[in-house]
Design brief:
Helix 2 packs across helix 15. This protein is of the alpha+beta class. The protein has 15 helices and 22 strands. The radius of gyration is 23 Å and the shape is globular. Its EC number is 1.3.3.15. InterPro entries: Amino_oxidase, FAD/NAD-bd_sf, Protoporphyrinogen_oxidase, Zeta_carotene_desat/Oxidored. One of its GO terms (molecular function) is oxygen-dependent protoporphyrinogen oxidase activity.
């Protein structure tokens, strides 16, 4: 009788769980899958909590419905696989705003993560410099070139477009700055177009055309009842043994596979497996790799992360605008970098008692000192700044919650994808039954993380000599 495969998935976030589900679906029957999670709960940054008697997301709130390359996103496909498609809901209000010169202005349409495809449409919030975007007879980028988003857009459209549009859009996702973030990683469609188009305006329009949606097609979705349902369903469907509060402290190659050192240093447990999916952030991954793949560990460990705090307030019958929320450029001098009016944006969360849930994101890369404030102080500053932005005093909250995510958001500098490809190539050549997966390598967002985990699982199956089921 054939020996059963034993696969360890290190990391119980959505990346690791997606890998476990794919292994269950595609690996030979009887494969033993174990998920090791350092904390006491699965899901990573997918965490549904409760505030003032109702559900609220303390981490990621939604997922993209479509894949940039076309078709439904990997998150939607996983939701369908888990039998949760009937619980997908979409925003009731889609219009968001920017804080510009101390007032709310609607985010203009026709942009690609803030980069305009029509300069006239952004004139209300920023003054582009169209003369700089001239055709110089060659593509904007070379075949393998990567630059920061800010460097490209400043040179072509000017500072205001970056500072007032692109920077807050990227900051809302990555808590980073456009001048530091890799174009190829954060905006791959625009990077591809820039390698063939001669002006930025033309590149934006080409990228938009490649990702066009049907009229009225929703961009985002979430699950009625919260995204923790996705976590729970994936854990169940994987059939994996889940080990929570189980820190993997060591990883050693053996002749037949891998030996994991798990648990406290004074009383470690050693576990032998055939293959490993390493679905943890880059720095813990680098520590595990250092003992047998030092060059790979050094490259992986270079990735830096930003920390953020999410402050959610339950407000009794506040006068909120009909917006999904707003973004704040760093030039406005506010602690808040983004806010979501949860019970306005998501119709299924609206409450008959008139209580509104408002969430603000605090923390920009390089400014982590602001996060040293106490929970009470952060909540007070958020309440005060929300009142100032809305130009009216908000009622005192009846409840609040501060969720801190330390080292949560990867900061992809130019060349990130090439560094990751080199690390994976070196690791795959020497140790094909060990795969890296997660946001630290492939990008942020639930669909990207799901696809990263599934790809790692498929590669493990091939490395173990199986064609999959």
């Amino acid at each position: 009788m054939a020996t059963r495969w034993r696969v360890a998935v290190v990391g119980g976030g959505i990346t690791g769980l997606a890998a476990a589900v794919r292994l269950r679906d595609r690996a030979p029957a009887g494969t033993e899958i174990t998920v090791y999670e350092q904390s006491g709960a699965l899901g990573g940054k997918l965490r549904t909590g409760e505030l003032a008697g109702g559900p609220v997301e303390f981490g990621a709130e939604s997922f993209l419905m479509r894949d940039p390359a076309g078709g439904e996103s990997a998150a939607v496909t996983l939701v369908r696989r888990l039998g949760l498609a009937d619980r997908i809901v979409h925003p009731s209000v889609g219009q968001a705003a920017l804080v510009v010169d101390d007032e709310l202005r609607p985010i203009p349409g026709g942009t690609l993560v803030g980069v305009p495809g029509d300069l006239d449409r952004v004139a209300a919030v920023a003054r582009p410099t169209p003369a700089a975007d001239r055709d110089e007879g060659r593509p904007l980028l070379g075949p393998d070139q990567d630059v920061s988003v800010g460097a490209l857009v400043r040179a072509r459209f000017g500072d205001e477009v970056v500072d007032r549009l692109v920077d807050p859009m990227l900051g809302g996702v990555y808590a980073g700055r456009a001048d530091d973030l890799s174009l190829a990683t954060t905006m791959p469609a625009l990077a591809r177009a820039a390698r063939t188009r001669h002006t930025l305006l033309d590149a934006v329009r080409a990228a938009q055309a490649a990702a066009s949606r049907a009229p009225g097609e929703p961009v985002f979705g979430t699950l009625d009842g919260g995204l923790t349902a996705l976590v729970q369903a994936a854990a169940t469907a994987s059939g994996a043994t889940v080990r929570d509060n189980a820190t993997v402290r060591g990883l050693t190659p053996t002749g037949a596979g891998w030996r994991l050192t798990v648990g406290p240093t004074r009383d470690p447990e050693h576990v032998d497996v055939d293959a490993v999916v390493l679905a943890v952030p880059a720095r813990p991954a680098a520590r595990l790799l250092a003992g047998f793949a030092e060059p790979v560990a050094a490259g992986v460990g270079e990735l830096d992360y930003a920390s953020v705090a999410l402050v959610t307030l339950a407000l009794p019958e506040p006068a909120l605008p009909q917006l999904s929320g707003f973004l704040v450029p760093s030039t406005e001098g506010l602690l808040i970098k983004a806010s979501t009016f949860f019970t306005t944006k998501w119709g299924h969360l609206r409450r008959p008692d008139g209580l509104a849930l408002v969430r603000a994101s605090v923390g920009r890369y390089g400014d982590e000192a602001q996060l040293q404030r106490s929970d009470q102080d952060l909540a007070a500053v958020v309440h005060r700044e929300l009142s100032a932005v809305l130009d009216r005093p908000l009622p005192d909250p009846v409840a609040g919650h501060v969720q801190r995510w330390g080292g949560a958001l990867p900061q992809y500098t130019p060349g990130h994808l090439d560094r990751v490809a080199a690390a994976r190539s070196a690791l795959g050549s020497a140790h094909p039954t060990l795969r890296l997966a997660g946001a630290g390598y492939d990008g942020v967002g639930i669909p990207v993380c799901v696809r990263s985990g599934e790809t790692a699982a498929e590669e493990i199956i091939m490395a173990l000599g199986g064609s999959g089921r």
